[in-house]
Amino acid sequence: MTDVALITGTSSGMGLHAAVDLARRGLTVVATLRDLSRATALKAAAHDAGVELDVRELDVVDHEAAARVVGDVLAEHGRIDVLVNNAGRGSVATAEQLTMEQIQAQLDINYLAPVNLAKLVLPGMRERGSGRILTVTSVGGAVGQPFADAYCGAKFAVEGFMQSLAVVAERFGVQVGVIEPAAVASEFVSNVERPTATGAYGPLLDAYLSRTAGAFSQAQSAASAGAVIADLATRTGFVFRNQTSDAARNFVGVSLADGDGERVLGFTRPWIA
Is 111 a catalytic residue? Predict the structure, then answer.
């Protein structure tokens, strides 16, 4: 039976490329995006690659809608073997510039949405004794960065959740991991929320944005990052923490001596032995 993959955030960027690449590898791919009117590029890429996608609308922060989509996919395809939580959004602001509503919005899309989808697919995977749940986080899930307070906070949170879940889920044959890109050429930057009033933080923010622009001028291509996601979703070998480029590995290494997360899992596995 053909494996079924559900991937979110596929209107552009690495999500689009990952969806097409997964289909090219022979999986049945359910590609979701928040607005179906933005599916033109995705459908064109699938056509050019000679593959078919099951394209569906899903605003991942709508938990009831997520439950309906997962239920429909299970009813129509019979299973979900791979979940790729790719949908996300950035935020550039420091604590004083952020409203609690903005912080909540970051948690909603970057933390609670992937958690909800993981919960929705886990019962079927557990009962079948197999499955793979991958969440695209960021190097900002391992390294806190200035003016990324809400974004990094949400990414740290989802990495902690998934790392805690991983050692329990593997007892039932379900593999859980995170994927940490560094700068990727995509629409992500243009969608980042920025403060309108900078005040005393203006010079610091300007310096940060200048450094960020330099990083994105040498960004990994979305196609390359998407191919890495597809590879991690399908390859035989599996580790918890994965990066999409050498730049990402070097960046994460600043904070994590445990580069692939296996040392932490080795430490916590005996806790439930």
Answer: no
